[in-house]
């Protein structure tokens, strides 16, 4: 997985379906979480990191080009912008199902992970950790 956050080149992100999205309190926390993901066998390509002004611009663009079906998607974007403005990281991990999302959130918790939300095909759910 890349340890570098996405750089804003005017691109848009794909929708949240099939992902768990949450937050970590800074790049150091992300680094330790990334180490855990790698150690447990998660593929590099399944993780996206947003951080700083580039991440804020990417999320703001997502707000402008809505393609969602519920308020949960708008809420996670707004939360993401607030978290990034605080110097935190937003992380998205591709998952196969809800249990996989729960497992990711549990792995993130010892590294300060919070606010994780699972986006299934027709279901959105906050993951309690």
Give a written overview of the molecule:
The two termini are 24 Å apart. The protein has 4 helices and 5 strands, in the order E-H-E-H-H-E-H-E-E. It has 129 residues and is of the alpha+beta class. A hairpin with a 4-residue loop joins strand 4 and strand 5. The model has no long low-confidence stretch (mean pLDDT 88).
Shape: globular
- The overall pLDDT, averaged over residues, is 88
- Broad structural category: alpha+beta
> Considering DSSP H and I runs of 4 or more, what fraction of the residues is helical?
40-55%
User: How are the strands of the largest sheet arranged?
Assistant: 2-3-1-4-5
Oligomer: single chain
Strand content: 15-25%
Number of helices: 4
Task: Tell me the series of helices and strands, N- to C-terminal.
Answer: EHEHHEHEE
Radius of gyration in whole Å, from Cα?
A: 13 Å
Tell how many strands the DSSP assignment holds: 5
